[in-house]
Amino acid sequence: MRDFRQRLRAPLSVLAVVTAGLLTASCSGGSPGPGSGSSGGGASATPTPLPVIQISPAKGASKVRPEKNVVVTASNGELEEVTVQAEGAGGKVLEGEFDAGRTKWVSKGPLKPASDYTVSARATGEGGPATATSSFTTLKPAQELRIADITPNVKGETVGVGMPIMVRFTQPVADKKTIEKALRVTAQKPVQGAWRWIDDKFAIYRPAKFWPAHQKIRFTAELEGVRAGKNMYGVKNYATTMRVGAAWVSTVDTRTHQMVVRKDGKVVQKMAISAGKATTREYTTTNGVHLTMERGSPVTMISPGKKEGDPGYYKEVVDHAVRISNSGEYVHSAPWSVGSQGRANVSHGCINARPDQAKWYYENFHRGDVVKIVGTNRALEWNNGWGYWQMSFKQWRKGSALNG
Fold it and tell me: Which residues form the active site (predicted)?
């Protein structure tokens, strides 16, 4: 009997194994495993795509406007590096910024007009690295804007604390706001200041108060690619540095006939002078804050608007003359009126001084030194010479395209 039961159990055990195998196969989803011998083959995995880089302006684009941004984007990955460079010797590399996810890069600043640019970009992603290159050309402007003159711009020159920065352009500027943004003044001892447009070609910068003495001031004009008007762009950048020396400030009192010169607040010279005799407005010395502009020795002075033989005509050659306005006023040597200096006003409007003292002043002169004149009833016009300090800073800054 025992042997019979054992024979009966054996088939049941085999049946259980077979059933379990069938159940397992039914839950597998029907996908044949490796080496199953199925004629259909196995389903392959989808490969991860490479990053895709797009560049604007499009490849081969021409007449691209200089104010247009270069934009590089990447999908399926992140940008590792973007380089935009003008071709040719010394081609400038354009600066730019990535977004937070490094999927976008945008250039900063304008492009150089009439130039060829190359763009190269590299990105990486799960699918691997990718690169892209492109090139384009910027337009040649119908009108080119340059700077014709910057004052002061004499190498090694030291200027006074009242010195303005004067910029004259080669073309009338229509978009003054954009151009003014491109003009920058940085000082070692910063003070508030503003530009004022005198006309469409001429802009002047002055601080709210005199410059602090003994420092360097840097002026830059990042004009390249900046739009100045219809079909007009800046084509060159400019930079210059001026050195402000000691604070030379002279005070002239036409009533006491005295001129006191101070250097950094300390009196260094007292001069007996004779000012304009004031018989006419023309012969009246102007009141207010003047700046020294230029010097000459000798200088020939001729009565304005008169010819030889006319009443009041004069022609005099003077030594050691320092100009302080455009209406003919100088501080100069006058040996013929030494007897009146310190006592009476007998000049045609100039500040006359003793020859030795006029020579001393001439030799210590800097452009932009301050000469304050008091005691007359004729005010210096703000646009007479460099009379810009005659205007309050509140009024001055109203002439800025950026409203100060």
Answer: 332, 350
